Automatic annotation (TrEMBL):
Entry's family note: Belongs to the LDH/MDH superfamily. MDH type 1 family.
Protein name: Malate dehydrogenase
A Pfam family assignment: Ldh_1_N
Record-annotated Lactate/malate dehydrogenase N-terminal domain positions: 28-170
Any single Gene Ontology cellular-component annotation: cytoplasm
Catalytic reactions on record: (S)-malate + NAD(+) = oxaloacetate + NADH + H(+)
Active site: 202 (proton acceptor)
One Gene Ontology molecular-function label: L-malate dehydrogenase (NAD+) activity
Keyword terms, alphabetized: Mitochondrion, NAD, Oxidoreductase, Transit peptide, Tricarboxylic acid cycle
Length: 340
């Protein structure tokens, strides 16, 4: 306001200029698994992000079509499709962020852990290439089981000598997205104003929404309603898997969540202050080596892993009961990566 009074540009104008596409730094984002159910809408959403200058779409099949299609959209980024392992290096080279939704999704009756055998191998080979071609990129791991694929990625990077714990993220944003929607519905508050941290991991009971910290506060939710909201958040993925009846798991809401998380990473890289999202990262806020919690993002990735804050008794119980399962999933990932 002071500036405007003096006849200069308003501060909001300055802010807009500072982050407009013309002055935003060059950023390359690669999506691995870009022709899949998540990959395609995620490619679309990343093409719409003005912070992206280059978008590399990689898959084992189908990427030329997705890339040609998305490339016609009138936004800043240049789009290129890469298909097959021969082109993986080119897709990755120079990437600031690599988003990985490659792998098989769940069918009804499957847990995320049932995907382990196939997806662990895919993640391992993709991460080996990341270590070689873009060791400094931030990795956004979407492929399930995230509780194990993130530890696998860490082991691969450690072996390659490129591991930087600030740069590896398990994408748990969809749990937050769901918790917000379900809470807004019950608390009768506008979803756009809602914030709910979700901590722990990304499977069943390891997903722990902290509704006691939800804002705007709601004083009229009973303990039973909080329990039901918690359960619905934990089972949100299964709700979609069952509704899709064999045709896969969440893709559209996952693409939305993945785009939000990648955007937060881009903002952090670009020096925007106070960017905070929940993510499954290397952590020492509990005794487990990886844990999802609020994370502050900065120019080098994780700037700070934020603590859990005050928990209700129900949440404290949830935290204790999730630890054995999360620990086992982490160990399973580490074991896989070190054996093969
Ligand atoms: P999808 O089967 O529709 O697509 C997966 C894509 O990965 C396919 O296009 C396939 O060709 C590709 N792919 C397979 N092997 C590859 C390799 N070696 N390199 C590159 N691409 C490869 O599956 P969808 O629905 O897109 O799900 C992908 C993954 O995301 C699954 O593991 C799923 O469980 C996970 N997921 C994670 C969520 C989260 O919250 N973190 C939520 C929903 C799904």
């Amino acid at each position: 306001a002071a500036l405007r009074r003096g006849g200069g540009p308003s501060s909001s104008h300055l802010l807009r200029r500072c982050y407009s596409s013309e002055s935003a730094p060059e950023r390359k984002v690669a999506v691995l698994g870009a022709a899949g159910g998540i990959g395609q809408p995620l490619a679309l959403l990343m093409k719409l992000n003005p912070l992206v200058s280059k978008l590399a779409l990689y898959d084992i099949a189908g990427t030329p079509g997705v890339a040609a299609d998305v490339s016609h959209i009138n936004t800043r980024s240049e789009v290129a499709g890469y298909m097959g392992e021969d082109q993986l290096g080119q897709a990755l080279e120079g990437s600031d962020i690599v988003i990985i939704p490659a792998g098989v999704p769940r069918k009804p009756g499957m847990t995320r852990d049932d995907l382990f055998n196939i997806n662990a191998g895919i993640v391992k080979s993709l991460c080996t290439a990341i270590a070689k071609y873009c060791p400094n990129a931030l990795v956004n791991m979407i492929s399930n089981p995230v509780n194990s694929t993130v530890p696998i990625a860490a082991e691969v990077f450690k072996k390659a000598g490129t591991y930087d714990e600030r740069k590896l993220f398990g994408v748990t944003t969809l749990d937050v997205v769901r918790a917000k929607t379900f809470y807004a519905g019950k608390a009768k508050v506008p979803v756009a104003e809602v914030n709910v941290p979700v901590v722990g991991g990304h499977a069943g009971i390891t997903i722990l929404p902290l509704f006691s910290q939800a804002t705007p506060k709601s004083n009229n939710l009973s303990d039973d309603e909080i329990k039901a909201l918690t359960k619905r958040t934990q089972d949100g993925g299964t709700e979609v898997v069952e509704a899709k009846a064999g045709k896969g798991s969440a893709t559209l809401s996952m693409a939305y969540a993945g785009a939000i998380f990648a955007d937060a990473c881009l903002k952090g890289l670009n020096g925007v202050p106070d960017v905070v999202e929940c993510s499954f990262v290397q952590s020492n806020i509990t005794e487990l080596p990886f844990f999802a919690s609020k994370v502050k993002l900065g120019k080098k990735g994780v700037e700070e892993v934020l603590g859990l804050g005050p928990l209700s008794d129900y949440e404290k119980q949830g935290l204790e009961s999730l630890k054995p399962e999360l620990k086992a999933s982490i160990e399973k990932g580490i074991k896989f990566a070190s054996e093969k």
